[in-house]
Amino acid sequence: MKNNLTNKINVKTPIVEIDGDEMARVMWKMVKDKLLFPYLDMNIEYYDLQIENRDKTNDRVTIDAANAIMRYGVGVKCATITPNADRVKEYNLKKMWKSPNGTIRSILDGTVFRKPILVKNIKPSVSTWKKPIIIGRHAYGDVYNNTEMRIPGPGKAEITFTPSGGREPAHKTIKEFTGSGIIQGIHNTDESIQGFAKACFTFAFDQKIDLWFSAKDTISKTYDARFRDIFEEEYNEKWIEKFKDAGIEYFFTLIDDAVARVIRSEGGMLWALKNYDGDVMSDMIATAYGSLAMMTSALVSPHGYFEYEAAHGTVQKHYYKHLNNEETSTNSMALILAWSGCLRKRGELDGEADLVDFANKLEEAAIETVESGIMTGDLLLVAKESPNNKKVNTEKFIDAIVERLHRKLQS
Ligand code: NAP
Ligand code: MG
What we know:
Radius of gyration: 23 Å
Bound molecules: NADP nicotinamide-adenine-dinucleotide phosphate, magnesium ion
Number of strands: 16
Helix content: 40-55%
Shape: globular
């Protein structure tokens, strides 16, 4: 399909593009070539985070990518492999590099908001859910920045804090080991938790939805309780009146209780979760709304940086099929909506109405394509039955969106 090049929309500020791995990388290139470059004149600050390049650069490229987002404000990221022992073997890596998402998030700080992509012809598996459940996942610290150790045999494991300025260190015993085992040290900072709380209250107020926060404060009486108290302080000091006026509520509850209540609810709230809880719960919520590929993810940093990505991974199993020349039907919705989210934010920050309009049309074209019945295999399994339903392959799905987008841009 040809587009008149003189109509290309000019994107003033460079976009920080972070490329990734496997099937997500294959789709990423199709999305750029078919849905973006024909319509946009944009400068890309490109960081290639595919695993081979992270290994080659000793993971420097991941840090450079995060720094570029700090320089320009807005970035978009493809899914990347987080190496485990199998991947170290598969790609002959120098070491088991850390999760790039973990590295980037710990540099930018902030909260990851995960929102399901709702389409009319797919009903959530939980029949009571009528509205989207948005997850606000704290993106700093805890197990993602941990220090852990195998304990080879009997001995005493301790936790020590040595204050700056030469005051007495504080010690606590973790365990008197009588045999082998494991230990782990995790941390968070009041500043980061305050940023997390502020981002969640701001988001909920902006969208006029209730905010729920849950943690395991009955068991973790210092660590999780600190999160609870900081949320409480933020609410009492800055939001109590505003929330009342807007007719929305904040409430804290134990995570077990929250999980049970979420399932019984109608949805329509922001559920704030600690880093690990948010990681795990967002996959469950995405799947219940139809597919892992129907969930967007945006990192909002308290310092004013934004990073957009898909919530799913590199779709390894589909990639191996693709390498085998077998046909794949992999869903690019979340990657497309990562780009539209990034472009919309860039357009808003730069006052570029054309770009915002393009981003909106791109998103509409993608959603309407699925609603018209053209979909990938993951969605066909869960979509409302209709004679219009048609499973298409990875590329044809993107082509169908291109066709719709082209029509929208011409009208
Ligand atoms: P995954 O890539 O999310 O895929 C898990 C399964 O979910 C797939 O096998 C597929 O199910 C389904 N799925 C996910 N995305 C889909 C899509 N776009 N279209 C259709 N189906 C989709 O998770 P994984 O297999 O556990 O992890 C693979 C790699 O991704 C790992 O190396 C992991 O480290 C990495 N990862 C990266 C990120 C990130 O960068 N944000 C997040 C999570 C995982 P079927 O096979 O049943 O079709
Ligand atoms: Mg996850």
